[in-house]
Amino acid sequence: MPKLTGIALGLHDDGSLELVAASVAHGSGPTMWHAQQDGPNGDWSDWYPFGKPGRGGPGRPSLKQHEDGRLEVFVATGGDQAVWHRWTTGPGPDDWSDWESLGKPGGRGAEGPVALTMLADGRFMAVVTAGGRVWRATSPGPGPQAHWPAWSALGRPGGATAMAVAALENADARVEVALLGETAIPPTGRGGKLWHRSQTGPGPDDWSGWEPLGEPGGHEAGIPVFGLQSHPGVGLHLFTPAAVGAVWHKSQHHHSDPSWSGPWEALAQPVLAFGETAVTLDTTGHVFLVATEFTGNRLWYAAQVRNDLNTWSPLSPLAMVPEAPEDLAALITPTLHLNSDGRTQLFVVIRATGKLYQLTSPAKGELPTVGRTWPHP
Predict the structure, then answer these.
(1) First and final C-alpha spacing in the chain
(2) What percent of the chain is predicted at pLDDT more than 90?
């Protein structure tokens, strides 16, 4: 029985959502799966096999829509340690290209999810960590294409080992990259300091240097996640769970100013540790955040209250994911997207068993609280 390890959500041109999942290697069968709504806001299909990119188990997939409406999926695999991609060729569940390899960045094994962003001219940029450094590749033109130019190094700050990376285009189409750099092994596992660098122009070498974002509240940071700018003129948001009981937040002063706000702000500080975060924009254009616990089966949420960057609701309990004795209560890969009707879709994976759990808003503007467990592929 395939055990899911990562998921991604994307929006088709007709307004229906696509769900892509990775699983551990299961014999010679597929290691990727997908499902699709039967139309905007519709019911979900059963799982369809999505092939086996490369060798070994795939990591967490990434999914993004092109300007022409087609979706493209990227994943790094554990066997050949290359980055693979495929894209939609039509509206049907089988209308996808074959898997194509983008190779190993700099000849090194790719690690972790591929961060995807779009340039001003419609080309995709993929950013990934490999060999302790950050690498980027850019598609040769707008729209999906099989073969890309070689990977280029974005390096790493000082002696830090690159562990996880986030990337997103700003309102003026410059790309911002945030890096979790490990300088020591913290007690909670993966943690370290955060750094960032930004595009400064259209050329391939037009980048700022790496600049430190520090440790939120003096604690080891977790995996960074960017939030979209919610209103004109506002820069990006950056979130990270810290090793000690809080989700922390920074924001850019303005989309044309790559500098970030002053001290890290804690959205809340209950006596527990958080694992991973996910964000989306709600129907009012405000940022909505979901966080998993480091060891528990509860989900938490916070939301912007006003256009003011640092005005947030308290981080509050959202839902308790039902657990069987074998589930061990750890949730991973929280993933958010809005239905065409504005209802929020939230998916998480139960780490121990690889089960998928879905939460949906009962109506527009309401929290995603209606839950169900999906069958294994």
Answers:
(1) 7
(2) 62
